[in-house]
């Protein structure tokens, strides 16, 4: 069933995946600091939300959940787009854009100096 004309089911799933990943990337990997005063004397102002989560400890349950959720959405989007090449490439690049910053090797790394300050 199509509620909005000219928007197909594969397009809806791809848009859902891309918008979710974009919002999560912006929230977790670009926003720095905290919305409240912290006792760390300003050290958190240089860290993103992902880097502050669980005091920087890798592979905790909350980090695993936030890593697995875009993967599950990617699998669903790929299935409902019937693995169409265009949708598959868009969904794959969107998934990689949120998974790569979550790697432990990239903790605190600013590629090309982007978001350094």
Automatic annotation (TrEMBL):
The keyword Zinc does not apply. It is found in: Membrane. GO terms for cellular component: endoplasmic reticulum membrane. The keyword Transmembrane helix applies. One of its GO terms (biological process) is sphingolipid metabolic process. It holds the Pfam family ORMDL. It is a multi-pass membrane protein. Keywords: Membrane, Transmembrane, Transmembrane helix. It comes from the Eukaryota. The chain crosses the membrane at residues 6-28, 65-83. Ceramide-sensitive subunit of the serine palmitoyltransferase (SPT) complex, which is also composed of SPTLC1, SPTLC2/3 and SPTSSA/B. Belongs to the ORM family. Plays an essential role in the homeostatic regulation of sphingolipid de novo biosynthesis by modulating the activity of the serine palmitoyltransferase (SPT) in response to ceramide levels. When complexed to SPT, the binding of ceramides to its N-terminus stabilizes a conformation that block SPT substrate entry, hence preventing SPT catalytic activity. Through this mechanism, maintains ceramide levels at sufficient concentrations for the production of complex sphingolipids, but which prevents the accumulation of ceramides to levels that trigger apoptosis. This is ORM1-like protein 2. It comes from Gadus morhua.
């Amino acid at each position: 069933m199509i509620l909005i004309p000219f928007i197909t089911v594969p397009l809806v799933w791809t848009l859902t995946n891309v918008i979710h990943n974009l919002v999560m990337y912006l929230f977790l990997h670009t926003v720095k600091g905290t919305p409240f005063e912290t006792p760390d004397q300003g050290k958190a102002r240089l860290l993103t939300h992902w880097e502050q989560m669980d005091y920087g400890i890798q592979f905790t349950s909350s980090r695993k959940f936030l890593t697995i959720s875009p993967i599950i959405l990617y699998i669903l989007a790929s299935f409902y787009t019937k693995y169409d090449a265009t949708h598959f490439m868009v969904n794959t690049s969107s998934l990689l854009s949120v998974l790569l910053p979550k790697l432990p090797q990239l903790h605190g790394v600013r590629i090309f100096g982007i978001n350094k300050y």
